[in-house]
Amino acid sequence: MNKINNKTRPDAAGRRSANRWWALVVLALAQFLVVLDASIVNIALPALGEDLALDTTALSWIITAYVLPFGGLLLLGGRLADRYGHRRIFMIGILGFAAASAAAGLASSGGWLLAARAVQGASAALLAPAALALVTKLFTEPGDRAKALGIWGAVAGIGSAAGVLLGGVLTGAFGWAAVFFVNVPIGFLVLIAIPALVTKDTLGATAKTDMPGAITVTAGLTLFVYALSEGERAGWASPVIGILLAAAIVLLTAFVIIEKRSANPLVPFSIFRNRSVLAGNVATLLIGGATTGLFFALSVYMQAVLHYDALTAGLTQLPLAIALVVAAGAVPGVMKKIGPRMSLAASLLVFAAGLVWLSLAPSDASFAAHLLAPTIVLGAGLGGAFVTGTQLAVHGVSQQDDGLASGLVNTSQQIGGAVGLILLGMLSSSRTASLLASGKEQTVALSGGFSWVFLGAALLAVIGAAVAVVLRGRSANREALLGGETIVER
What we know:
The protein is mostly helical. It has helices at residues 10-14, 20-37, 41-52, 56-84, 86-105, 110-138, 142-174, 178-181, 183-197, 211-234, 239-261, 275-305, 310-315, 318-338, 340-359, 367-394, 402-437, 442-470; strands at residues 479-482, 485-488. Strands 1-2 form a two-stranded antiparallel ribbon. Mean pLDDT is 81; it is low at 1-14 and 474-490.
């Protein structure tokens, strides 16, 4: 029998599924849809806008309408899964996601599409933390858990990269509605398979859900991201933006006070005494910001500057996706030798190097000469970063908090992505405007703006690497059980 961490209870977890590796495949497929949907729409936006007569501001909300409820409701989704059952909440989430995807594909107006996207985001906030919590319960033996989380992290990275690829292929071949319809058969396949692969939930916690905490954190995060997204358009001196930011700060402050006084807090802050959880979440926040900015800028750069069509822009992401898969498969072995934190730091530095290299691409870049090599480096760094970041974020968490830890890491990625996209977008706009004012051509100015996005994303990755090294665990947390061996982190 494999050596087991005495904090886990494999007998309980083992009863969740007699086919846990197949269960992992299905759960990872659901996670793939969630991550994919945050980026697959990007390339479809021009065609979608033309068909539904939406201006640039309205098009930006096609993305925001998904990200806001997703990021804002993840903590609540994780806690609901802990209380009412991970499989039950997962099933509700995947059903809502598939139904909302069908509604989005059938949309005949901007309002209809925005409403469907909001339901998609809310449903994703239920299924994502429940799915990751199920994985941690299915795989309690350290070696198997490392492999499972390696696959999970790889899927998250592939979903981000594949959004550009599949978005281009589907839009070019079938039209913009296909980027939503593709979720429907996969979603219902997952819905049918999970009851056959994962046993019913046992009774969850009896404590009341912390609704005041859930309301304040959801409203606070939503207002904060909304204020940032509207700040550049309305002007940072706008009274409305000031009021929104002030309200967000008040709500988030109230959330902290409520959590400290609550007998059953939505987020018990004691979880952050686990340095692995803290380091994993901070790094994931920064990874989310860098990755979302990268793929948005890269897809627009290829179409607006290099004049690739949607299909070509999508196909150029294949080398990145392949490198990501290879790196994700190799990372568990690397973690055995140097520990999760150093693996995370190294992966982020590789990712940063690829971003800096990509920033050097000119406005008339050739894919083979200027883009192929840096995107392969990017894929390798991302594969390692997603795997190790997820591993750290759930390491050492008690079983009753699996949903919470899963909700936290997903929240970090989504809020980081939303804020990173806004901040890096502002950086790009500023640089582009400056180059245009100096007399540069449109394509040269756009290329210069995107270069700053890549450099800004590289800075986020470097900060994440520093966090991984600095936030070292205390003596009890400095040992990571990977593959049944005790590994002292360096």
